[in-house]
Design brief:
The complex is a heterodimer of chains A (274) and B (221). Chain A is α/β, with parallel strands linked by helices. Chain A is built from eleven helices and six strands. Chain A has a six-stranded parallel sheet, sandwiched between helices. Chain B has 221 residues and is mainly alpha-helical. Chain B has nine helices and no strands. In chain B, helix 4 packs parallel to helix 5, helix 6 crosses helix 8 and helix 8 runs parallel beside helix 9. The chains are: A alpha/beta (274), B mainly alpha (221). Chains A and B meet through helix 2, helix 5, helix 6, helix 9 and helix 10 of A and helix 2, helix 4, helix 5, helix 6 and helix 7 of B.
């Protein structure tokens, strides 16, 4: 049973140390590995590029502190792109109550130079956190003024110039959301035909491919990889690109450990005569 | 044992079942049919739901106050009492600072959030990476044909997802892209359609009162 002894000898603490090194080292000294652009990311970029001037975009920034590394850089990259275009932004957080705080503390400072060129209430408006998630989406899609009565500063929706012509989902040209795509497809794409794009966790990417394939999602940024690709496309390096190398090396470490584990497993089987 | 002798109409299970059926069917019908009066009623229901969801947060505060307040008042173990008191203090501190205008973006709330939640939450979440690394070494074994296919697919998708995959061999990106667009889409569609049919069946059971497990939530059974 020597093989089994070998399996047991690979100390978990060694794995933890290796992971710590492969994640930490590239953050200090990036490797600058080339980053091929995947189709769902390019699709969102092209969609935003093709928006006519004055288009209305509903941007849902429901980022939580725990999911910041997966969603935060994507939110910043897409907002930078949207703010560099002549589009009107309706900002909202539906997924989590943490959204407005993280928007104020992390997203806003990163896009400050873009926001300075825009006028609040005319080019963008922030409604903060709205409870109810999918029910809130349905209510917003049905009647924006009824569901979003005041903005984050307490200004009545009727007094916000941007919102004068935004009455329902029919007046929205694109929805870019964080976390899960299914509720937005159900409430915006299917009944009103509003294109929906999602910024989600890396692990959700395979599950959302059927929506991309069916045209129900017009684009997707999955995790750090998606953010890194988008930052490359807009030419504005940020957290995504700096984390991409850490992602690469950590994946390589996991693959190496899986291979080692399997070699040990095969050796164990051979030696035990099974 | 739950006592329900029919004397209290509020405790009868028929009432919530009937309400669920009526409101559920209304929302369901509104999605598929354009009936103005129904549309107006469902629109109002949606606003009510948003208000109730906001009120549920307040109920959370009340519930935590009752639970921890009971510990502070009755518990003999001083450590537990101190921890519960500390939890209540922090909860109310965050709640009060969070309600200072502008709500949730007041500098004092932001400072508290950034120095506690924003630091602790990702820390706890990132510990998963260490667990997954160790687990992948122990669990991903090519024990049989299916497990081997699973293992190879997993490695291909990982290399596709990590930028280094394309750098190691451009064919890995092509292979990963094919895996994402063909077998994964096919498998996911099957799962999604199956789950959707299952949800529909569950909805019909709920509307007709055959599914009432949710009514017993919280009373142990």
């Amino acid at each position: 049973m020597e093989g089994e002894v070998m399996v047991k000898e690979l100390d978990p603490r060694l794995m933890y140390l290796l992971l710590f090194i492969v994640v930490g080292a590239p953050l200090i000294r990036p490797l600058g590995l080339p980053l091929p652009i995947t189709e769902p990311v390019l699709a969102l970029y092209n969609k935003i590029e093709s928006l006519p001037p004055g288009s209305i975009v509903l941007f849902e920034y429901g980022v939580g502190a725990a999911s910041w590394p997966e969603h935060g850089p994507s939110n910043i990259a897409v907002l930078k792109h949207l703010l560099s275009k002549d589009v009107k932004l309706i900002l909202i957080s539906l997924y989590t109550a943490e959204g407005p705080t993280l928007f104020a503390t992390r997203i806003k400072p990163a896009i400050e130079s873009y926001l300075e060129k825009k006028t609040y209430g005319v080019d963008y408006v922030d409604f903060g956190y709205i409870t109810g998630y999918e029910t809130a989406m349905a209510a917003i899609a049905e009647n924006v003024h009824k569901a979003l009565s005041v903005d984050v500063y307490g200004t009545p929706v009727e007094k916000i110039p941007l919102m004068k012509n935004v009455k329902s989902a029919e007046d929205i040209d694109l929805v870019v959301a964080t976390a899960y795509c299914e509720p937005y497809i159900r409430q915006f794409y299917t009944p009103y035909g509003v294109p929906v794009a999602i910024m989600t966790w890396g692990m959700n990417a395979p599950g959302y491919m059927p929506y991309i394939d069916a045209g129900q999602l017009c684009g997707m940024l999955a995790g750090i990889r998606g953010a890194a690709e988008y930052e490359t496309l807009i030419g504005s390096p940020g957290e995504g690109i700096s984390s991409a190398d850490a992602l690469s090396l950590s994946h390589l470490l996991v693959i190496a450990l899986v291979i080692i584990g399997n070699i040990q497993y095969i050796l164990t089987k051979e030696r035990s005569g099974r | 044992m739950r006592r329900d002798n029919g004397l209290s109409w509020a405790r009868r299970r028929e009432l919530p079942l009937l309400l669920t059926a009526i409101l559920g069917i209304m929302a369901f019908a509104d999605y598929f049919f354009a009936i103005p009066i129904l549309h107006s009623a469902v629109s109002d229901l949606q606003i009510w739901t948003m208000i109730m969801a906001a009120f549920a947060m307040f109920m959370g505060v009340v519930n935590l106050t009752i639970v921890h307040g009971r510990v502070v008042m009755r518990e003999k173990d001083s450590t537990r009492r101190i921890l519960s008191a500390w939890t209540l203090f922090l909860m109310y501190l965050m709640a009060i600072l969070g309600l200072l205008p502008p709500i949730t973006v007041h500098p004092s709330f932001q400072w508290l959030y950034s120095t506690t939640v924003a630091a602790l939450d990702p820390t706890v979440y990132s510990i998963l990476a260490f667990f997954i690394t160790s687990a992948s070494y122990r669990a991903f074994r090519a024990r049989n044909f299916e497990a081997t296919v699973f293992l190879i697919s997993g490695i291909i998708i990982m290399l596709y997802n990590a930028p280094i995959g394309g750098w190691l061999h451009p064919g890995l990106v092509t292979l990963g892209s094919w895996a994402m667009n063909v077998p994964i889409v096919a498998g996911q569609r099957a799962i999604m359609i199956g789950a959707a049919i299952g949800s529909l069946a569950l909805a019909i059971r709920t509307f007709t009162g055959r599914e009432s497990a949710w009514l017993r939530a919280g009373d142990g059974g």
